[in-house]
Write a structure and sequence with these properties.
The chain is an alpha+beta fold. It folds into two domains: 2-166, Jelly Rolls (Sandwich), CATH 2.60.120; 170-278, Arc Repressor Mutant, subunit A (Orthogonal Bundle), CATH 1.10.10. It contains 14 helices and eight strands. The strands form two sheets. Strands 1-7-2-5-8 form a five-stranded antiparallel sheet. Strand 3 (40-45) and strand 4 (48-53) form a beta hairpin. The chain is globular and about 60 Å long. The model is unreliable at 1-9 (pLDDT under 50).
């Protein structure tokens, strides 16, 4: 079981040299990061036309095939892919993750400074290096840290690059942000769309629609993701019993809690805790 999990995680992150392969819809369960170091590309996505040139980054959060993809003859890119499974196994702090996804969904292109591009390329080189260090005693831990550094650098760069767009989202963006803030305070106990819609004085249908438009996922998806992140942190970072955790996150029974964790990670709570305590090592 342990070797199986590690192989799945390792195969969930990789680099691709062919932009047409990466953007053709083959990797619809992956988050794509494309950095253009030379030339330019143009494409159509979500009924919008985009163009990106050297010094730009492109973030594709759903792995949708790009329509009308055109690449200049001199184009050179670095393409990095992360699977959704990887994020489930190693979740980020969800507040940052949702805000980042909202920005990416609204505008997938980052117009980067030379310094920011250099930082991203150095991060990617570090990830490549860590991917090759399979004999390292703490291979999964060091690789995870490198990917986290890269991801948070991307969030920081993208937020700065798109600060103006982020402040012009209107009422729907405001509702999405308020929903995210409510999740931080209540998701341990409340996991229904109706609860959050009531707090925001909107209908559940409206809340799900604006979340879908802002982030590419409905409200129920983010409720589950926030809750799962908190639960996995409790399993990893505390010595509370499974029953204590189950009660704390408001499950009817330990069996319901166990089923929820296994459905989303492939492991029972005790298996997940044991894997994290062992550090994910294959030795």
């Amino acid at each position: 079981m342990e070797l199986e999990i590690i192989e799945k995680l390792s195969s969930g992150i990789f680099f691709c040299e062919d932009i047409f392969e990466a953007c053709g819809g083959k990797y619809n369960d992956y988050l794509l990061h494309i950095f253009i170091t030379k030339g330019s590309i143009s494409f159509r996505l979500n009924n919008n036309q985009y163009q990106a040139s050297a010094g730009s980054g492109v973030i594709l959060i759903e792995g949708k095939p790009l329509e009308e993809l055109r690449v200049s003859a001199d184009t050179e890119t670095i393409i990095f892919l992360k699977s959704k499974y990887y994020h489930q196994a190693y979740p980020l702090k969800m507040t940052h993750h949702v805000k980042g996804l909202k920005f990416y969904y609204d505008n997938p292109i980052m117009q980067m400074s030379a310094e920011d591009m250099d930082l991203c390329l150095r991060d990617l080189e570090d990830i490549k290096h860590r991917l090759q260090q399979k004999g390292h005693l703490y291979h999964q831990e060091t690789l995870k840290r490198s990917i986290e550094n890269f991801t948070y650098d991307i969030f920081d760069i993208y937020t700065r690059c798109n600060q103006e767009q982020a402040t012009k989202g209107g009422q729907e963006a405001l509702v999405t942000q308020q929903f995210i803030d409510l999740l931080k305070d209540h998701v341990m106990k409340e996991r229904t769309v109706e609860f959050y819609a009531d707090k925001l004085f909107v209908t559940p249908k409206y809340l799900s629609r604006v979340c879908q438009q802002s982030t590419g996922h409905p409200a129920s998806f983010w409720i589950t993701q926030f809750a799962l992140t908190h639960m996995l942190e409790l399993l990893t970072d505390t010595d509370k019993s499974l029953t204590e955790i189950s009660n704390e996150v408001n499950f009817q029974s330990l069996s319901h809690f166990t089923r929820f964790i296994k459905n989303h990670t492939g492991l029972t709570p005790s298996e997940f805790r044991m894997k994290k305590r062992k550090g994910g090592k294959s030795t």
